[in-house]
Amino acid sequence: MKRGIGNHQIGDSFEGFVLIKESTKGTTTNGKPFLTLVLRDATGEIEAKLWDINHEDESVFVQEQIININGEINQFRGKAQMRINTIRLAQPTDGVQVADFIEKAPVEREELMEKLTEAIFEMKNPAMQRIVRAIIKKYQEPLLLYPAAAKNHHEYVSGLAHHIVSMLKIARELCELYPEVNKDLLYAGIILHDIGKLKELSGVVSTSYTLQGKLLGHIPIMVEEIGNTAKDLQIEGEEVLILQHMVLSHHGKAEWGSPTPPLVREAELLHFIDLIDAKMNMLNRALDKVKPGEFTERLFAMDNRSFYKPTFED
Amino acid sequence: MKRGIGNHQIGDSFEGFVLIKESTKGTTTNGKPFLTLVLRDATGEIEAKLWDINHEDESVFVQEQIININGEINQFRGKAQMRINTIRLAQPTDGVQVADFIEKAPVEREELMEKLTEAIFEMKNPAMQRIVRAIIKKYQEPLLLYPAAAKNHHEYVSGLAHHIVSMLKIARELCELYPEVNKDLLYAGIILHDIGKLKELSGVVSTSYTLQGKLLGHIPIMVEEIGNTAKDLQIEGEEVLILQHMVLSHHGKAEWGSPTPPLVREAELLHFIDLIDAKMNMLNRALDKVKPGEFTERLFAMDNRSFYKPTFED
Amino acid sequence: MKRGIGNHQIGDSFEGFVLIKESTKGTTTNGKPFLTLVLRDATGEIEAKLWDINHEDESVFVQEQIININGEINQFRGKAQMRINTIRLAQPTDGVQVADFIEKAPVEREELMEKLTEAIFEMKNPAMQRIVRAIIKKYQEPLLLYPAAAKNHHEYVSGLAHHIVSMLKIARELCELYPEVNKDLLYAGIILHDIGKLKELSGVVSTSYTLQGKLLGHIPIMVEEIGNTAKDLQIEGEEVLILQHMVLSHHGKAEWGSPTPPLVREAELLHFIDLIDAKMNMLNRALDKVKPGEFTERLFAMDNRSFYKPTFED
Amino acid sequence: MKRGIGNHQIGDSFEGFVLIKESTKGTTTNGKPFLTLVLRDATGEIEAKLWDINHEDESVFVQEQIININGEINQFRGKAQMRINTIRLAQPTDGVQVADFIEKAPVEREELMEKLTEAIFEMKNPAMQRIVRAIIKKYQEPLLLYPAAAKNHHEYVSGLAHHIVSMLKIARELCELYPEVNKDLLYAGIILHDIGKLKELSGVVSTSYTLQGKLLGHIPIMVEEIGNTAKDLQIEGEEVLILQHMVLSHHGKAEWGSPTPPLVREAELLHFIDLIDAKMNMLNRALDKVKPGEFTERLFAMDNRSFYKPTFED
Amino acid sequence: MKRGIGNHQIGDSFEGFVLIKESTKGTTTNGKPFLTLVLRDATGEIEAKLWDINHEDESVFVQEQIININGEINQFRGKAQMRINTIRLAQPTDGVQVADFIEKAPVEREELMEKLTEAIFEMKNPAMQRIVRAIIKKYQEPLLLYPAAAKNHHEYVSGLAHHIVSMLKIARELCELYPEVNKDLLYAGIILHDIGKLKELSGVVSTSYTLQGKLLGHIPIMVEEIGNTAKDLQIEGEEVLILQHMVLSHHGKAEWGSPTPPLVREAELLHFIDLIDAKMNMLNRALDKVKPGEFTERLFAMDNRSFYKPTFED
Amino acid sequence: MKRGIGNHQIGDSFEGFVLIKESTKGTTTNGKPFLTLVLRDATGEIEAKLWDINHEDESVFVQEQIININGEINQFRGKAQMRINTIRLAQPTDGVQVADFIEKAPVEREELMEKLTEAIFEMKNPAMQRIVRAIIKKYQEPLLLYPAAAKNHHEYVSGLAHHIVSMLKIARELCELYPEVNKDLLYAGIILHDIGKLKELSGVVSTSYTLQGKLLGHIPIMVEEIGNTAKDLQIEGEEVLILQHMVLSHHGKAEWGSPTPPLVREAELLHFIDLIDAKMNMLNRALDKVKPGEFTERLFAMDNRSFYKPTFED
Fold it and tell me: Does residue E292 fall inside a structural domain?
């Protein structure tokens, strides 16, 4: 385990650089101001209290600043909380930058791009290949940067690309087991299904939903994008409709955000591959934090279950 | 009540012209071929049996033909069924045409168009007005022809336009009661909300779903259309997004086909106006068929309820 | 915007008269007693802390007293909270009274009564008219005083009458659009549907549920009342049953408190008119508090949605 | 097992008197008229076909006539169906009457009345006792005649009284086990809970729902009746409200027709005693028809389950 | 009412012996350590704060220690909380023991065992009797000690045996009312249905779930145990299967933990008897704490309802 | 496409050998007996009518007989139905046997066994390996014969083994993608998860549910079996519990028959692999029957969806 803010124990002291993710002013019952900070580095995050602040503190210790702190970790209402003893802003000479404090995909950006390009290269249906290539080209930069979700799964730098590449690997094997599957269609669906998140989410550092994301959501955004791209490329034919359907139906059910359920074999498969990779990502990261014989914290996005790590895991 | 196939009584004889809506060949238990026809005129429809057919009958009495028949109406498994005694194809000299056998909106096409134009004229926001005008212009012809749904409500010629115009009337009054409401936005939402049905449904006579209708549905189709129209007109700004949201959310809930629920005041209102007009259309037509003191048949699209017509209705 | 406790900003000072809605004694972790007060005026309410109290304070600053305070508004756990610096009971010479601190309907009581009377006057069915008139006469006083609900919508003085009169306006227009609707029945249903709340709710100032309200609810209470009134007036006939059905079914579904769903056209319409007016009341008041480009707080009674106010609203 | 129409086997002949429960005219595919009769006696019912009828047959063999028939029992679409060979109306000299063909409770009417009277006699709370006594006196005649439901459970002559008396027996024992229970209240609730069915259901022979039953249902009808009775007897006090609550809440949940769930101990108990007796009645009668080692037919009102009778029974 | 920690009033002082159920260290906003203790005696439990602790306090006042305290009961966030003034560990000379501070069934252990033995003695089917006897013999000790659940109902010493014996009493009476019921089967089902809890729950004092309890649950554990016992006793035949089915189905529905619903008459009855006794136990204990005219606290396991105790209860 | 009864077209004649799956006697409206047969061969099944039968026919043409027929395929109520013209029992000299008329897995029995053995061989955890090996050894014969379900998916000879082997292939790849997964555990779960079906289902030819299957279901049966096997092999330790949990939770949710949801990583994965392979099996077989551009029949076990086969599938 990397040492960092995400690997704290109650009772530990901590000294080092962290990024301020959120900063809120409060007042104690005695009327004294203090700051509640959410601090993070690449290993996780923690809530911290800075007591007895002055006006300058308030204006200096704000969101997205890097700071050097010294504090101790206590328990407050069942959760870890840091009490900050000393604090200072990072200086240029400290040689630290925002990117150092953000979690990244376990696979390099270049490798992710390579795998993506390879999959597109394998596609034989020219209509699908051209649409996919055009969209990937347009969004290449943010695609390699964005997380796959604001929270829950793949919520780290390059998370979306990492999610796509993992899904492509599963798809490749399922196409071998079930040769009836149309590989081009499945690949295209996997690559495009979540690209709408690049418009739905605000970015990488403190990811939130954009207005367009809240009022439309990534699915309708992407259905429109595919239509536009096909129009621009003067591609007509059932491929366009089926690709739009793949994206539209990939959440599986109306209640989950797909007004039309999967009605094409590859759309059904896309839905399941998406589910498996999202759930395994959540699960693996949660289990990584506990020892054999322990249960994870409750995972909200997995029906609030708490998972067990058997003792025979070494 | 108009006399016609929809106003039959068990035991009646019937003689006249009707349209063949469906025609299916069957075989009796003795191995003899017969035709099961669904016949309709502007007042309704009935199932009919033509026994002892020959090969010519099969090829002649097909879908969308007008025929002159003589038969009697019996009860079969609790439903009315006609036994056809004599049958012949309509001749040009009979002076009948398909349009005569299809139900129409109770308001003339011209009047519907006039009301629509008037509403667009009243709009003050130029972005919304231009988008609505462009789409209505593009779809004017089918809009005045299409039903609002394949079944359940406004399922007659000009049904969609009739539905829109009724909703506009409700909207006008609600804008007076609640002056905070943005009338332009509500009008635009009402006019556009179901235009996607012109691509979702196959047409007027034997309305079914198109492939695009089945795989995407009228809501995503229309969200894309609004985006395209705005792009073509080089309109940018929040109006486009909000109009797309109005259409996207008008079914009210994910389970009912809106992946995003209404999050704008006028979207919420649009949803309710749509519901009221659809339900009143179903209800009025079902109650029109029963006498005071009776219950209607069960209305599937209204939670399978059977409604009562009080005896104090004259 | 009127200035008042409901229009506070974090960081503001406040000085003026307010009503104590609730008063609870607490003890700090140091064992010192303090009061948590909920304060209100006609614009809204706020939680406030009065630190370091003595025994007299406890017995003086109690529910439904008017006080003059001076304090400042801080943020506590994400919500506004006032810290009271000075406090004194209002004196007769201050010229303030409880009614000044309670929100009122935006329409005057007299006007509401007039509209109600007018609607009853329009009714032609003598049985319905007499029942409605008798009930309104019996409950006239509280009807003009009570809110329409303990919270969520029309929760202000005359709220119930305001709700009824708004619904009557919608009904009038719908009767014009759908001439098949029985106007007398719809009017009677609207006027009576929530009168049971006068027994279900405790009153106007700190509205809670009565024992009868908790164990029976306003719907069965009113069904019985209609039966009793008809008996007293020696009215028989289907009108009584249908009016009872209107009230019984107006929540639309068993899950929502109507053991029988609407089975009469006007009952269905009543349900929708009720929904629209309740929702628009909530929505308009929530949107009134935010600026264009902002979202409202989450509205619990509207599926916990947060609504957006477009920037093109001026 | 009693011999009768309810104990038929496929392949049996049948000769004897039966009651016509329903009679519907049909036409064969060859255009020949026939009658579909539902025939019943005290042991059950069967569908029967009378082929090749003439006009007189149609007008003679109608609902609620007793007939003497001779026929054989075949299987048609998986269900038993009788083919009638000879048929004649019963004559006065045959000495048969409608009551002979209707199922009755396994306990005599006099005994049921005696148990009821005994329970009322035991009650000590005068308010409850007087209300219960007045209502039972008013409805004594139909109460001893009516079924407890149109179908599913206790659907036989005196079924309602039988259901009440069984429930009282369970109540007596539970009051012993849980001495905190208010026996008067539980008894009163049991006796009154379903009396509204005497207005909800049309009668004993071909039980259907009355208009009042359909538009209000037995629960609100009975809440009103208790209120009226108390008013007539000039009884005031919490007993009236609690009795109304007992009736109102006895279906347990809003979805099941109780807008208020049980909020008083005895109301909760009433709900469960009602459930147990209804279910055991259904179950015992269904299991009575099968042999050890067999499953019953599917019981719709018990979640469509098919129950097993173990081989180690008798 | 017994005097004890469960019968506190806000404002009371308390002096006496209690058991520490939980002990957690916290830190005030000023950085000072304190202990939050959950204290209990046989009448209930309360949260308490011990301020200004030293290192020794931390290591001494831990779970399952008996202490003598003096404190006062305040209100904190709407709940009672004790502020401890003086505290000391109990001494051997105090003559108190853990068992004194734990709630017990209101029936003596010996009497419970006697009733159980009696019921087994009454059984006539040798297969069932031998299986039940073997299992009861094996588990006799914990059975007379364990609660019936970790919380909600019968959560006291001997709770499980008390629950079984109450259910047997209800069963005896229902067998009289419904003579078709197989008494042996019902008795066997009641006695065995929850024995799996002896493996699912950790014990009596601070009851939690075992790993086996979390991963399998008491139902599958007991199905396996019945199978094993029969195998050991060399009993074959349908009795084994039906007993396993009784246990498997006793929660009534898949959603409630029974993958197979009751499909045997006695299984259906077992489910209802279990429900009634569990609910009456919860309800009686909650109502015992309030005065006539009051409502209980919300009961989570009873759909979060708050029950009313009528004023006519003496 | 293989020629056979499953590849019929309306209007075709058919001549050949088929197996009688079901045989039911009926009576025409004229009182003449006939047989309704369900006929099958390895390609599918069809309903057929044999008119004008005599007593011998009835006793000869019964379930599981092979017959040679000549007939024609008509449409009856929207489904294909064969009218049999000539019929005779197969003779020994015809050289046909029951196994020829039953669908088989597309992979040979030997190959399935080999893959299974290979997977067991790869397992490194001795406890799991021994348990799996013992169970597979015990059930080897039926395992290679049984279908994986009575209908819906893999409902053919060796269907269960085919399902297991396909799942193992998916598992192998996922273990590569997610190296944290415990391969032994996942393999063991896959191999054991449905073995309980060998006791739940009656066999291969006319598969129905056994009494044990109906009253317990394959999941609890298998949990017990694993416990027994471990006991016999004297294996203790967490592996046994976790394997039981894998089987218990593999349906994913209580509503779907798993009283405990997956709480171990490999259990979650097992659930998804099971879902994918079952759905792909259904889907591939349904799509195999339609041409590009067509929709499949509605698939009940896939939420009643009808899937589309794109036209760009060659």
Answer: no
Separation between Cα atoms, residue D225 and residue D198, nearest integer Å: 12
A250, A193 Cβ separation under 8 angstroms: yes
Same structural domain, F93 and F210:
no
Inter-chain residue contact F211 with D308, CB threshold 8 Å:
yes
Same domain? For C140 and C93 the reply is no
Give partners of C (≥3 CB pairs < 8 A).
A, B, D, E
| Domains held by chain B: number | 2
Alpha helices in chain C (DSSP H): 55-60, 109-122, 126-143, 159-177, 183-192, 197-200, 211-215, 218-232, 238-249, 265-287
C61 and C154 both lie in a single domain: no
Q: Which of helix, strand or coil describes residue E43? A: coil
Provide the terminal-to-terminal Cα distance of chain C, rounded to the nearest Å: 15
Tokens, residue F7: 């590849």
Q: Which of D215, D240, D253 to mutate to test the interface with C (most CBs of C within 10 A)?
A: D215
User: For position A138, what pLDDT does the model report?
Assistant: 97
User: Residue C57 carries which side chain, given as an amino acid letter?
Assistant: D
What is the overall mean pLDDT for chain D? 91
Say if E192 falls within a structural domain: yes
pLDDT in tens, E150-164: 888 898 999 999 999
ipTM over cut 0.90: no
Per residue in B7-50, pLDDT tens?
777 778 888 899 998 888 877 766 678 899 989 888 878 889 99
Whether residue D263 lies inside any domain: the answer is yes
The percent of residues above 70 in pLDDT, for chain B, comes to 97
What are the tens digits of pLDDT across the range B204-260? 877 889 999 999 999 999 999 999 999 999 999 999 999 999 999 999 999 999 999
Q: Do the bridges between strand C44-50 and strand C79-89 make them parallel or antiparallel, or are there none, so unpaired?
A: parallel
Torsion sign, CA atoms A105, A109, A114, A117: positive
8 Å CB contact of B308 and D29: no
Q: Annotate chain D with DSSP letters as a single string.
A: ---SGGG--TT-EEEEEEEEEEEEEEE-TTS-EEEEEEEEETTEEEEEEE-S--HHHHHHS-TT-EEEEEEEEEEETTEEEEEEEEEEE--GGG---GGGGS-B-SS-HHHHHHHHHHHHHH---HHHHHHHHHHHHHHHHHHTT--SSSSSSS-SBTHHHHHHHHHHHHHHHHHHHSTTS-HHHHHHHHHHTTTTHHHHB--STT--B-HHHHHT-HHHHHHHHHHHHHHHTT--SHHHHHHHHHHHHTT-SGGGT-SS---BHHHHHHHHHHHHHHHHHHHHHHHTTS-TT-BPPPBGGGTTB--B--TT--
What's the pTM value of the predicted model, to 2 decimals?
A: 0.89
Check whether residue E14 and residue E134 sit in a common domain.
no
Contacts of F234 (CB under 8 A, 6+ apart): none
CA distances from C259 to A29, B304, C254, D249, E303 (A): 50, 16, 5, 11, 19
Q: What is the CATH number of the domain that holds F22?
A: 2.40.50.140
Q: Which residues of B touch A (CB under 8 A)?
A: 211-212, 214-217, 219-220, 223-224, 227-228, 231, 238, 241-242, 244-245, 248, 254-260, 263-264
The region, left, alpha or beta by phi > 0 then psi within -120 to 50, assigned to residue F260 is beta
**Which residues of chain C have a pLDDT value below 50?**
1-2
For every residue of B195-210, DSSP letters joined together read TTHHHHB--STT--B-
Residue A13 to residues A7, A72, E25, E34, E58: CA-CA distances in angstroms? 12, 4, 17, 20, 20
Q: Which residues of chain F lie closer than 8 angstroms to E239, CB-CB?
A: none
- When scoring A172, A176, A265 by the number of chain F Cβ atoms within 10 A, the one with the most, hence best to mutate, is A265
Residue C254 lies in a domain: yes
- Range of the structural domain that residue B71 is part of: 5-101
